[in-house]
Amino acid sequence: MQSENDITQNDDATTPWYALRLFSIKQQAIDDELRERGFTTFIPKQVVDFRDKSNKLRHELRPVVRNLIFLKKAMDEKEFRKEIFNFPYKVSVIKKGRDTNEIAEISAKEMHEFQLMCDPKLVEKKFISEESAKLKVGAPVIVTHGPLKGLTGKLVRSNKKYYLLKDIPGIAVMLKVTRWCCQPLEDNVKTKN
Questions:
Q1: Per-residue confidence at 15, pLDDT binned at 50, 70, 90?
Q2: How far are the Cα atoms of 3, 24, 34, 69 from residue 28, in angstroms, in the given order?
Q3: Distance between CA atoms of residues 123 and 173, nearest Å
Q4: What integer pLDDT is reported at residue 193 of this predicted model?
Q5: What's the CA angle centered on 134, arms 70 and 99, to 5 degrees?
């Protein structure tokens, strides 16, 4: 028999996410409001170096973009649309395409991998727009060795370096990787059969 904790962990492993586009500069206030309403959120952040008024070099964890928050699905779509409609800040849910009203869902696995790749401790990464990510040419791979083992994405080349590209609705992240640590996904599927 499964305990309540096991059920919660299973739900976390399969619950999809949404991407919210913000029409306000109050990203932190919106995030706080969503959390107060019981939502689980994620904002990609990175360490930024800057000089303060006394010209000392400082490091601060800041959001990568100010107009995006990821939100774990916590209710059915009809209830969620009603909740967002009555939300005190102007936000919109990113849709699957321009010609559809269907909300773009990010699978729990994709979101987990994206969150791992956004870890501020990892260096040599780039954040790019979703549109730029779609223009990048590369092969789908899985990382087979090293600290990124198990992550999937597209192996792309930029400025004579190789990156693992993970794109989700709203944003994409490119993390430097050694191409020798990656295996094409087609080969991985063939060896299992």
A1: very high
A2: 35, 10, 10, 10
A3: 12
A4: 46
A5: 70
